[in-house]
Design goal:
The protein is mainly α and about 350 residues long. The chain has helices at about 1-135, 140-155, 160-175, 185-195, 225-240, 255-275, 280-300, 305-320, 330-345.
Amino acid sequence: MNAETQSGTADKPQSLRNRINPLMVVAMLIIVAIVVAWQWYDTRSQITGLQQELAKRLAEADASGKESRNLAAEAREAGRQADTKLSLLEAKLAESQSQQVALEALYQEVARNRDEVTLEEVEQLLLIASQQLQLAGNVKAALIAMQEADVRLQRIDRPQLSPLRKVMLKDMDLLKAAHYVDTVGISLRIDTLAVAVAMLPLAMEIRPPETNPVPEPIPVAESVWFKFAREVWGDMKQLVRIQNMDKPDLPLLAPSQAYFLRENLKLRLLSARHALLVRDTASFKTDIKACLDWINRYYDSKSKPATNMLEALRQLHDSEIGIELPNISASLDAVRNYRLARERGSR
């Protein structure tokens, strides 16, 4: 029983295996096919996605490449423009440098010319000062001219000019210490006296003062003939005057001689003015003395115009005009030597 039962149970699984194996194989094949199909589909989907992603990336890369190429082109264009601008800037820089060199040379030339012009002006001012001293003896005008020359040198402000300025300052100190003669003022006084000559009264033109005769007492009883004779005698006394003259040798001049006397007196005053300008003390005093003598001799010395003129002439006669003036030739020589040294140095 047991053996049969065991043999029966053993045959069952074998038959079952015989019946299941083809189904299982088919099922497994189907499963395998499904898995393979799913894997193929999945792989295809992934490949498609990768292709799309790759295409997208390629498109983006192409766009980026185009943009990069555009940027590179713009950069190259900007570089070319920068090179052009740099070339222009270099050309302008070179031009500006050449202009700067030219301007510096021009400035140096202008500075040299300005200094030369200033030195010429200084020399001219010193010449004017020397002429004022030698011809007019005008110390004040000479000092003003030298001070103006010193101001011109101060504007240049060169250390090389210090020795020249020292010489000029020394000459200016000499001018300041010199005795001042108001040549212009004295000359104007002489001109005023020459004009006033026409107002001087001649001595021969003096008239005795009018006297009021004391009326004689008239007799109470007087005849007509006595009255007529008395009036005739009074009129005759008025025709003749007797005067005591202080100058018994009073010259009598004709009208033409009186005119020439006035003109000669004016010429004497003008000669005194000329002697004043040339510092001729002897001639100046001689002309003034002659004017004093002529006025005392030919003119009414007691009249107010003559008194004023005599007083002015005495003051002029006592004034000292022959002073020794300083010499400023040292300043002139210093300026000329400096200009010669500059010209030799510029060559």
